[in-house]
Every structure is written in structure tokens, then in C-alpha cells.
Amino acid sequence: EAGVVQSPRYKIIEKKQPVAFWCNPISGHNTLYWYRQNLGQGPELLIRYENEEAVDDSQLPKDRFSAERLKGVDSTLKIQPAELGDSAVYLCASSSSPAGASYNEQFFGPGTRLTVL
Amino acid sequence: GNSVTQMEGPVTLSEEAFLTINCTYTATGYPSLFWYVQYPGEGLQLLLKATKADDKGSNKGFEATYRKETTSFHLEKGSVQVSDSAVYFCALSGGNNRLAFGKGNQVVVIP
């Protein structure tokens, strides 16, 4: 079974430029997460989708970040315009939602390493 | 809010040595606790978990016990191998599927 797929793996851009990251979750997983991981830190949640609905986006800086999950499968995270402080690894994760489960294991992709110059 | 604190700094040890990585947490209610591992060039993987007090999670020779009285979830392995070299993250979930991670500890095992 294929894992969570992310692209690109690396991206280098100049500040003020736009950038987009793509994620394909594990087949059948209806919950999708975007995290940001700064150097030397643990991941921090940006947004969580249940199917195509964003149910937790309180940590997403909405002035420059946007995300979408059309048809409840693939997702795109966009930054426009990028700032120097946006340099980080952007992780996508997915999980299923079995009935009665106390916790749904999240499966992570390899991440996209963004460098803003 | 929920938070996780891991011991500072990388951990370097020799093969077959005993490994301990400390993790303490702050949370309301009764969170679930996790250890994730990130091998070089790979994504985060769930290593083990515990969902209630006194539960012991175990996998691949690693163990951690959910200690509510000390709000801790320390990771241990009795005899590490070079292949255990990775970054280890402690995390908790407060029931809304939002994971709060610690900063992580890089473990380097020397042959």
C-alpha cells in the first residue's frame, strides 16, 4: 500500500514569491492534516480536513496561507507571498476514522523542505 | 493548552547501551500519549502509544509507560542498535486528533 505522497520534496524560492505544496493521502483516509516543522522543533498543526471540510484551521496564518482539498482526496497548501520565516518542512499526514476509535493513527509523508531566500 | 517537554540535546551512545529519553506533558483531561520516530530522509512513523494511565506501549524493543502521577511518558530501550539512530518525538492528543509534539531528540548510536 502506498504511503502519503508529497511533492515537491525540496523548494527554494525568493521572498515574496508564491509557493504551493501538494499532498496525496493514503487511499481511503478521509482525514488530512498539514503540519509545519521548524528546524529543531516538533511539527505544529496548520489545518485539518475531514473529507473536503476544514474542521480545524485555527493555527493557519490566513493572511498568506491557504489550503484546499477538492473532492476530499488530494490537498494543496499555498503560501503567497512567502516570507523568510516560512522556511521550514511542511508535512502532510492522513488518517482513517474507524467508528469507536479513541485515536486515529496519523501516517506522515516525507515532507517538503522549503527555503525562502 | 496541551504541551510536551522533552529533555534537551542530542543523545549519543554506543551500540548495546541502554537508552532513555525523558518526556513530560501538560494537558487537561486524559490525553493519549505517543512516541514517533523519524529516520533520516523518511516521514514520521508511530513507534508506540498509550491511551490511559499505567498503560505500557511497546514496539521494536522500545517501551514507555503512561505515568499520570508524574505526567511522564519516558522512552526506554535496553540495548540499542546502529539502526535505531533517528529523531524521536514525544506527542500527545487531547481527543480532538490534534497532536502536540515535543521538540524531538536526535539519537546517534555509535558502533
How would you sum up this structure in a few lines?
The complex is a heterodimer of chains A (117) and B (111). With 117 residues, chain A is mainly β. Chain A has strands spanning 5-7, 10-13, 19-24, 31-37, 44-50, 53-56, 65-68, 75-79, 88-95, 107-108, 112-116.
| Shape assignment of chain B | globular
State the helical fraction of chain A.
under 10%
Element order, helices and strands of chain A?
EEEEEEEEEEE
Broad shape of chain A: globular
Gyration radius of chain B (Cα, Å) is 13 Å
Mean pLDDT of chain B: 93
Number of strands of chain B: 12
Strand/helix succession of chain B: EEEEEEEEEEEE
Describe this protein's structure:
Chain A is mainly beta. Chain A contains no helices and eleven strands. Chain A has strands at 5-7, 10-13, 19-24, 31-37, 44-50, 53-56, 65-68, 75-79, 88-95, 107-108, 112-116. Chain A is globular and about 45 Å long. The model of chain A has no long low-confidence stretch (mean pLDDT 92). With 111 residues, chain B is mainly beta. In chain B, 0% of the residues lie in helices and 50% in strands. In chain B, a hairpin with a 6-residue loop joins strand 5 and strand 6. Chain A binds chain B through residues 3-4, 31, 40-45, 48, 56, 91, 93, 95, 102-111, and chain B through 4, 32, 36, 41-46, 49, 51, 89, 91, 93, 96-99, 101-104.
Secondary structure layout plus pairing:
The complex is a heterodimer of chains A (about 120) and B (about 110).
Chain A: E1 5-7, E2 10-13, E3 19-24, E4 31-37, E5 44-50, E6 53-56, E7 65-68, E8 75-79, E9 88-95, E10 107-108, E11 112-116
Parallel strand pairs in A: 2-11
Antiparallel strand pairs in A: 1-3, 3-8, 4-5, 4-9, 5-6, 7-8, 9-10, 9-11
Chain B: E1 3-6, E2 11-14, E3 19-21, E4 23-26, E5 32-38, E6 45-50, E7 56-59, E8 62-65, E9 75-77, E10 86-93, E11 99-101, E12 105-110
Parallel strand pairs in B: 2-12
Antiparallel strand pairs in B: 1-4, 3-9, 5-6, 5-10, 7-8, 8-9, 10-11, 10-12
